[in-house]
Amino acid sequence: MLDRGESLTLLAGVSVGQVVFTHRALPDVLPVNFRLDGDAVVIRVATGSALARVAEGAVLAFHADRIDEAARTGWSVTVVGRVAEVTDPAERRRIAELPLRSWVGDGRDHFIRIATDRVTGCVLA
Amino acid sequence: MLDRGESLTLLAGVSVGQVVFTHRALPDVLPVNFRLDGDAVVIRVATGSALARVAEGAVLAFHADRIDEAARTGWSVTVVGRVAEVTDPAERRRIAELPLRSWVGDGRDHFIRIATDRVTGCVLA
Question: Which of A112, B74, B98, B107 is placed for a possible disulfide with B67 were both Cys, Cβ 3.0 to 4.6 Å?
Answer without folding.
Answer: B74
